[in-house]
Write a structure and sequence with these properties.
This protein has about 300 residues and is of the alpha/beta class. It has 12 helices and 10 strands. The strands form 2 sheets. An 8-stranded parallel beta sheet has the order 3-4-5-6-7-8-9-10.
Length: about 300
């Protein structure tokens, strides 16, 4: 399988929708850079693009989608666009209202996958019921969650009607969330990895470097290939053309079972962020839970 063929590979979600298995993320990217990354990603063969209102770059992503489609001659249906409901918009009616701003910023008529970004206690059940309505109304093709631990996910399953199609979690060699992976697999929920490369600690790991040298690949390519063979949907971020291509150049080799076991054994269950880090949930939290503001943000990010 070559690189472009690999980027067309999909997994079938629990509602029958087909989702690309490898995509492009744009976290911590301003609107101008997001536009260029998304445009370049589409030109280089990516079909899955992942953003969020909290990232403050939905407008840039929308412009990149438009320019990428124009450049390639593809249609909107050839892409799979994921975005996420901001925590401050959670609640039933506020969720129904918030999707309109997101669609306007992305300049789209529908979203392929809409996720609850974080489980805001006391609100995420009502939020999910609104997500179910958006799904039934056809504004979104699939709905899912992000950063839901097993306790909150079970509570969601017990009190709502639609099983989430996806749970997007931090997942990388340093933090493998094995209990959450098992729960999701049992429930028929596709796991998707954010921060799939695990930062400096994973990228400098000598065991992974040894595997990378064996295949004449980069450590990042080995990690993304490890995700691929484990059935994890992966969205590495890059704003550089060379790396956008390299991150998807993983289809001309296959990790051995021993290689997989070696990387599995690296797990430290070491999260970089978690629920109680956010000021939204914990007044002593270390992470400001707000929409990222960029100098190039359009006026419609005032909310």
């Amino acid at each position: 399988m070559n690189r472009l063929e690999g980027l067309e590979e999909t997994t079938t979600l629990n509602n029958g929708v087909k989702m690309p298995r490898l995509g492009l993320g744009v976290w911590k990217t301003d609107n101008t850079s997001a536009k260029e990354s998304v445009k370049e990603g589409i030109i280089k063969g990516y079909h899955l693009i992942d953003t969020a209102k909290q990232y403050g770059n939905e407008s840039g992503v929308g412009e990149g989608i438009k320019e990428g489609l124009a450049e390639t001659g593809m249609n909107r249906k050839d892409l799979f666009i994921t975005t996420k409901l901001f925590n401050g918009d959670q609640g039933y009616q506020s969720t129904l209202d918030a999707v309109n701003g997101t669609l306007e910023r992305l300049d789209l008529t529908y979203i392929d996958l809409y996720l609850i970004h974080w489980p805001v206690d006391g609100k995420y059940i009502d939020t999910w019921r609104a997500m179910e309505k958006l799904y039934h109304d056809g504004k979104v093709r699939a709905i899912g969650v992000s950063n839901f631990d097993n306790e909150r996910l079970q509570n969601l399953l017990d009190n709502t009607n639609i099983v989430p199609a996806v749970n997007q979690m931090e997942f990388n060699p340093i933090n493998q969330e094995k209990g959450i992976v098992e729960f999701n697999n049992h429930a028929g929920i596709q796991l998707e990895a954010w921060s799939p490369l695990g930062g400096g600690e994973a990228l400098s790991n000598p065991e992974i470097k040894k595997i990378a040298d064996k295949y004449s690949k980069s450590v990042a390519q080995v990690i993304i290939r490890w995700d691929w063979q484990k059935g994890i949907v992966t969205i590495p971020k890059s704003s550089h053309e060379k790396r956008i291509i390299q991150n998807s150049d993983i289809f001309d080799f296959k990790l051995s079972d021993d290689d997989i076991k070696t990387i599995d054994a690296i797990d430290k269950a070491k999260r970089s962020l978690w629920y109680d880090d956010f000021g939204w949930h914990n007044p002593e939290g270390q992470v400001v839970d707000a929409v990222d503001k960029w100098d190039d943000s359009p006026k419609n990010y005032k909310d």
